[in-house]
């Protein structure tokens, strides 16, 4: 748990505390994005390609990548293996991104690796994500990892994780619209970039995809000689039997893909026991996704929904649940996101929403968003007084959101960005602790 303990098979692993790497890496929302594999491939070649010592399972998609990765890794760890796990972004600490078995990479080890790679980073003009990818590969090599689970950072075809040449198993989480400035304006273009992770002979497992995505993945698989297997969501009884800590109907899709991947691992790489795999999946905690916590004693639901597709899933989950009808939203939405689409997906008549800032990042201001929304959604936005600027301070927004007149039962939901959730914990505004 963020700020607490995350349970793992065979022991307990503390969620890593924040680590200051500002002298080596910029803040995680400030790093340069430069697509391409030449830089990371050149740097890895200079290191004698440490990634060649282990096989990788690569997970691409838009929403659900991290959940699939964590479930697969949890199952592998439950078997006493030493699998690697590489994910992004992080909530609290850079060390969250790299694990071997139960252990997060120690801050001293991560700093040492980044210092060791500093010359190559300058020589090859590595982006921060490429530096971390190289550090993860080197760490996995030195730790004797023989199987690693890699979450694609952005897109797929030109993502640094695709520089790994031994990816016999690929998984696709749900593909939707996000990062259009890098991946293309429409769903077909985005799917084409994500399909670029496919390679000759690999086997790919995909959750159900939008109609525009399916032919793209099929054609990409046919073109390169890959196999793609479509995995339906788990039935309710099968999903409930897993007893996952990950909440939401969307996890029926993610868990089904993870189980299909594990079955293929068992058949082709390392024998796995089904019951032990399920126990490992049940032990996984992946914070910031439909997570219940409290602020000053008041219940909150916290979710990192950061694009329109994720916002639609969050809204559907609320509509399908037994929670109160009205919602008070505390939303932090980065300026490069589809703020209008996200708010349209989330808000219902009678809801109230406070737009908050996220550190020094450019975020959607209340007035601009209100101008682009039709009534009654525009009326849901709570306008900050001029002295506060265009967004609310988080603590003020939370205080207003939890204050409800007698008889009101609105649920308070914090969403819009994983970076917001990390900031809230880091600043002590909320403590993300799981409730039963």
Describe the structure using short key phrases:
17 helices, disordered N terminus, five-stranded mixed sheet, alpha/beta, eight-stranded mixed sheet, 2 domains, Protein-Tyrosine Phosphatase, Chain A, 436 residues, UDP-N-acetylmuramoyl-L-alanine:D-glutamate ligase
Question: Secondary-structure map with pairings?
Answer:
Blueprint: E1 5-8, E2 11-14, H1 38-46, E3 55-60, H2 65-78, E4 84-86, E5 98-100, E6 103-104, H3 107-116, H4 118-123, H5 128-142, E7 147-151, E8 169-172, H6 180-183, H7 187-195, E9 203-206, H8 214-224, E10 227-230, H9 236-242, H10 250-268, H11 274-282, E11 291-295, E12 298-302, H12 308-320, E13 327-331, H13 339-346, E14 352-355, H14 366-372, H15 377-380, H16 394-402, E15 411-415, H17 418-426
Parallel strand pairs: 3-7, 3-8, 4-7, 8-9, 9-10, 12-15, 13-14, 13-15
Antiparallel strand pairs: 1-2, 4-5, 5-6, 11-12
Q: Can you walk through the features of this model?
A:
Residues 1-12 have low confidence and may be disordered. The longest helix has 19 residues, at 250-268. Helix 1 (38-46) packs parallel to helix 5 (128-142), helix 2 crosses helix 10 (250-268) and helix 7 packs parallel to helix 8. It is globular, with a radius of gyration of 21 Å. The protein is built from 17 helices and 15 strands. By secondary structure, it is an alpha/beta fold. It has helices at residues 38-46, 65-78, 107-116, 118-123, 128-142, 180-183, 187-195, 214-224, 236-242, 250-268, 274-282, 308-320, 339-346, 366-372, 377-380, 394-402, 418-426, and strands spanning 5-8, 11-14, 55-60, 84-86, 98-100, 103-104, 147-151, 169-172, 203-206, 227-230, 291-295, 298-302, 327-331, 352-355, 411-415. The strands form three sheets. It has an eight-stranded mixed beta sheet with strand order 6-5-4-7-3-8-9-10, with helices on both faces. The protein has two domains: 5-282, 3-Layer(aba) Sandwich (UDP-N-acetylmuramoyl-L-alanine:D-glutamate ligase), CATH 3.40.1190; 291-426, Protein-Tyrosine Phosphatase, Chain A. A hairpin with a 2-residue loop joins strand 1 and strand 2 (11-14).
